[in-house]
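Before relying on records like the one below, remember that each one covers exactly one chain. Contacts with other chains, cofactors or solvent are not represented anywhere in the record.
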Amino acid sequence: MELSERRTGVLLDRDGVLAENVFWDGRWRAPRNMREFRPIAGAAAAVTCLRAADLAVAVVTNQPDVGAGITPMREVDAMHACLRAEMGISSVYVCAHTQSDACDCRKPKPGLLQRAAADLGFDLASSYMVGDRWRDISAGHICGCRTVLIGDGGGEKFPVLPDVRVKDLGEAAELILDEINSDRRSTS
């Protein structure tokens, strides 16, 4: 497939974008089991809009609690089955490593994003990375994606700033679709 023929992709972090974070151990973290897993209201509608525009939509998520032995992979798989059923998301890419594993897939490294783009046939430089933490934004920046931060970034320091900040995935989807439609109008 020629690069110019490739679709635009929208890469979504999971926790804080599609599913609610959980407050435990003194900070906001990923849900550890299905009892804690709650899809964010409005996220399914936003994903539906993105998919209806023929965009490649994929989830790219760090889940270090698996590698640390806190969360069994079967729980993460159950959470992703819920996303597939409720949001129509078919492509989920997981890094189950801890930071000490020094893998190439743990965001901010680009491995998960590159794998999604290769598998789904989209150009990272004309795609979007949507996340709620600095690791998401940095991974998107490394890959040349337009970066969209949801919320305030959890008070973290950002090595690179997001291209845009929004309140939720619904606002992010609206922005992405407006930009893509504007680009299509200007090239026709």
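The first strand starts at residue 9 and ends at 12.
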